[in-house]
Write a structure and sequence with these properties.
- The protein is mainly alpha-helical.
- 75% of the residues lie in helices and 3% in strands.
- The protein is built from 14 helices and two strands, in the order ααββαααααααααααα.
- Strand 1 and strand 2 form a beta hairpin.
- Helix 6 crosses helix 9.
- The chain is globular.
């Protein structure tokens, strides 16, 4: 009897498998194309890049295993150190200029009475303009010569021309302004959607207590938006850390590497000097830095929530 019972326990439950297949099978069939393309175009290049970073390369082919030598060469490269410092500057300026600008825009849009549809479209319109077009447009604005639009306006007002993108102290800030103009609209729309879910009775209660706009913002609006702001904060750091298109189009990393980024260093290793090992090593270092920042942020967030 015991042997028959043990055999019955070891026998696979086909009814359970059929039930699972009927219940979750269609969902897996729908997800399968995305899983396959994700593996082919995301995970396979990612793992291949990590593997290549430990090899010496000739062109795009690996030759011999050299361990961490590519990482040592990259970290000791003065251009890499400059690019890393610039990337932190991009991140800092993006927080100063780009983090709170969408919040302000969303608050203004939320208070509008007339022309809501037009102003929402005008806010989102820069996001649908191709990134290269946006960069070229702002390049014409900040062009350091007499043909630059801003310098032309300054000369019309009797003011001297500025160097703009040729000034190393201004380059990163101006590029971040370009990035903010092109991307703030989509974030502002997300904030606006979040604001639509605020219970208006709370505002009425504050008004009855004699509270003004500032008190409503501090005690109701900001706490309600805090979760979205924290998420966008992390997303913005991840995005800015990979900035590539704007400095490449507007300055080429100049003047004198004043606007070069880690992504541009990886690009130069890959396509200028054709050193794929160093290129992938730079990308891995970027990924590790982003991972550390994200984990640190999540730990701080969870600790503050526990308190």
């Amino acid at each position: 009897m015991k042997s028959k019972r043990n055999a019955a326990l070891k026998k696979p439950d086909r009814n359970l498998f059929v039930y699972w297949l009927k219940k979750d099978g269609p969902a897996w069939l729908i997800l399968m194309p995305f899983l396959i393309t994700g593996i082919i175009f995301c995970w396979e290049p990612l793992l291949s890049g990590i593997r290549i970073s430990f090899f010496d390369t000739r062109g795009f082919e690996t030759t011999e295993f050299i361990g961490l030598q590519n990482y040592k060469d990259v970290i000791t490269d003065s251009v890499f150190l400059t690019a890393m410092a610039n990337t932190f500057k991009y991140t800092l300026w993006s927080i100063v200029l780009g983090l709170f600008t969408p919040v302000f825009i969303s608050l203004v849009l939320n208070e509008l009475v007339h022309g809501k549809a037009f102003f929402r479209f005008a806010t989102y319109f820069p996001c649908i303009v191709p990134g290269v077009v946006t960069s070229v447009m702002w390049l014409l604005m900040f062009y350091p010569g007499d043909g630059g639009i801003l310098n032309y306006i300054r000369s019309f007002m009797g003011l001297p021309a500025l160097q703009w993108l040729n000034d190393p102290s201004m380059t990163i800030m101006l590029i971040v302004i370009t990035m903010t103009w092109g991307g703030a609209g989509s974030t502002a729309i997300l904030y606006l959607a979040d604001l639509q879910s605020v219970n208006t009775d709370l505002y009425e209660a504050v008004s009855l207590d004699g509270g003004g706009i500032w008190r409503k913002f501090i005690h109701i609006t900001l706490p309600h938006m805090s979760g979205m702001i924290k998420m966008m904060f992390v997303m913005q750091i991840i995005s800015v850390f990979q900035v590539f298109q704007q400095p490449l189009t507007m300055t080429g990393g100049g003047p004198n590497n004043a606007s070069i980024t880690l992504a541009m260093v990886s690009y130069d290793y890959a396509f200028a000097t054709v050193e794929m090992g160093k290129s992938t090593a730079t990308s891995v270092i970027m990924a590790l830095m982003l991972l550390v920042f994200t984990v640190l942020y999540m730990r701080i967030k969870s600790h503050s929530m526990d308190e």
